[in-house]
Structure to design on (127 residues):
């Protein structure tokens, strides 16, 4: 079973907002708190739910915002559209959302890599 941002917050003994700030690279988090959150992320193997991220950033249903019901990522280009909205506008919106999700995924991978390096460094110091 996958863990949630709230699970990370509980383990790190911080609020979910603080976990979100760390994940998004906000500067208004202390070094100790950032380390605790990154450690909790690593221990729980936390991965953000990209559907939840998309819904949250879209401030509601993706369908209502873009008119897209679904988008195939298997390379076939098959799309399922609602009757509303212009096709070209929907395609641009879908491509932009995919680009943003890919950037977010790459950023999170960098954070986790950095966390793993920090954990290894602390292990070496502890030994």
């Amino acid at each position: 079973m996958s863990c949630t941002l709230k699970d990370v917050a509980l383990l790190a003994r911080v609020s979910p907002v603080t976990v979100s700030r760390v994940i998004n690279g906000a500067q208004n988090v202390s070094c100790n708190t950032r380390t605790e959150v990154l450690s909790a992320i690593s221990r729980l193997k936390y991965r953000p739910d990209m559907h939840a991220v998309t819904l949250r950033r879209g401030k509601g249903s993706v369908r209502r915002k873009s008119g897209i019901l679904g988008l195939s990522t298997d390379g076939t280009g098959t799309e399922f559209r609602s009757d509303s909205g212009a096709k070209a506008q929907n395609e641009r919106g879908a491509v932009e959302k995919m680009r943003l999700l890919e950037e977010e995924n790459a950023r999170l991978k960098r954070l986790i890599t950095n966390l793993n390096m920090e954990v290894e460094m602390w292990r070496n110091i502890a030994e």
User: Anything to note?
Assistant: The radius of gyration is 18 Å. Residues 61-69, 79-83 have pLDDT under 50 and may be disordered.
